[in-house]
Amino acid sequence: MPLVRVLVDGYSLLHSWPELAPGQARHSAAAREALVERLTHYRDATGTPITIFFDGALPRGVGPKIHSTPEVEVLFSTSGQTADDLIERAAARFQPYGEVLVVTDDMAERETVTAFGASAASCENFIRMVESTLAELAEALKHHNRNERKRFHQRH
Predict the structure, then answer these.
(1) Predicted pLDDT of residue 116
(2) Counted domains in the chain
(3) 149: which strand partners?
(4) Where in the sequence is the domain holding 35, given as residue range(s)?
(5) 101 burial type by CB count under 10 A (0-12 exposed, 13-18 middle, 19+ buried)
(6) Which is more confidently placed, 37 or 151?
């Protein structure tokens, strides 16, 4: 089955990725924005939609600078629920449509979602996958741009 969505435990991934928003607290708005931006680039490169789950609601009156889209959805848990609860529910709901990849370092969470039929990846493995994909894209763009410059100079 094709991969239909990547479900990410946002804070779990942020704690494993100190290169994002260096010097910023892992629960800060700057760190969340950096994560969403990097995963948006990854989604653009792969075409696979991503949902990023964060524990806790934003403070009232403080709207997120992060805009959720169908391609890169950003969700915050509400009182009485956790990001893990939301991830488990989403993994179960998406399962009939194809493969779902859950990204978290929580071993119990990975076992739970694999019981629903989802795949699970550690944050470290997912970071390597994201960085590799983005590096390949950058190399392909560099090659494409070089060829386009050559063609332009040959015509002019």
Answers:
(1) 85
(2) 1
(3) none
(4) 3-155
(5) buried
(6) 37
Q: Average model confidence (pLDDT) for the chain? A: 88
C-alpha distances (whole Å) from 72 to each of 23, 50, 57, 79 are 25, 5, 18, 23
User: Residue 65 has what pLDDT?
Assistant: 62
Residues across the chain: 156
Sequence-ordered strand ranges (E) for the chain: 3-9, 50-54, 72-76, 99-103, 119-121
- Indicate the angle between helix axes 83-94 and 107-115, nearest 10 degrees: 20
The pairing of strands 99-103 and 50-54 is unpaired
Which residue is it, tokens 């071993």? 107
| Residues 31, 54: Cα–Cα separation, whole Å | 12
Q: What is the pTM of this model?
A: 0.85
Close Cβ partners of 126 (under 8 Å, ≥ 6 residues apart): 8, 13, 103
Sign of the CA dihedral running 5, 11, 127, 31: positive
The dihedral formed by the CA atoms of 124, 94, 36 and 74, expressed in degrees to the nearest 10: -130
- Residue 15 belongs to domain with CATH number: 3.40.50
Written as one letter, the residue type at 4 is: V
